[in-house]
Design brief:
alpha+beta, 240 residues, 5 helices, 10-stranded antiparallel β-sheet
Length: 240
């Protein structure tokens, strides 16, 4: 299967690259360091509600430890920051070549500022929205006793390992999503490419980190185009 380089009509409504890390910087000093490093690009941070939870509770709860506490915004991007995580979201998303330079700049600046001691995990997530029943346009066969159930309200989740990454795919044909600031009913294809247990030292960041993100993006592309029929892909104006 030949994979397009980009789609002229991109269905991605959220593209987020996340880095989880350990740091020698005290938790309450992380936001100041990030602001000092990136203020020319992003401006002032906004506090998030999770800050109302005491630091000790957040640090001891695995569901809260990696949640962002602050948000920076600039046209087309949102940067989420916590004591152990940074996540850069891009919208509208065009392609990897267009969005990755800012990610590399952010990682490079924060690495030079000695934020990272070790990188533990990366994640690359793409959320796609379609105003149609995605199962009717997919390569999936969904049947019960040889009768298609693609017309039913369905949510499907799969997990697989490939090339050292975990690929988590979630598909729903009965979802509501915010598209250009408005709620829309349709289908969601959510691809989350994860690499855990990296234990990556700061001296190989950002080059090694960006190589891993590039690999994750390639896996996301493979999963996306394998799931959709050629006829449906052609409606988005694939460019090869």
């Amino acid at each position: 299967m030949k994979t397009p380089k980009r789609l002229a009509k991109n269905p991605i409504i959220d593209a987020t690259a996340e880095v989880r890390f350990t740091s020698t910087i005290p938790n309450d000093a992380v936001i100041g360091l990030v602001y000092a490093s990136l203020q020319q690009s992003f401006g002032k941070p906004e506090n998030l509600p999770i800050l109302q939870i005491p630091t000790a509770l957040r640090e001891n709860d695995s569901n809260l430890k990696y949640q962002p506490c602050y948000k920076f915004t600039k046209p087309g991007n949102v940067l989420m920051v916590g004591p152990h995580t940074i996540a850069l979201a891009t919208y509208p998303y065009l392609d990897w070549g267009t969005s990755s330079p800012l990610l590399k700049d952010v990682v490079s600046c924060l690495n030079k500022a000695n934020l990272f001691e070790r990188v533990e995990r990366i994640g690359l997530r793409y959320v796609n929205f379609f105003p149609v029943n995605i199962f009717d346009r997919s390569t999936l066969t969904l049947e019960v006793r040889r009768t298609s159930i693609a017309g039913r309200s369905l949510t499907l989740k799969t997990e697989e390992e490939s090339k050292g990454f975990k690929i988590v795919t979630q598909i729903s044909n009965d979802a509501t999503a915010q598209v250009a600031g408005e709620p829309k009913k349709g289908s969601i294809l959510d691809l989350d490419i994860q690499r855990d247990a990296l234990n990556m030292a700061a001296d190989v960041i950002p080059d090694r980190l960006m190589d891993l993100f590039l690999n994750a993006n390639e896996l996301a592309d493979e999963a996306f185009f394998a799931l959709l029929s050629d006829e449906f892909i052609n409606t988005f104006g694939p460019e090869y």
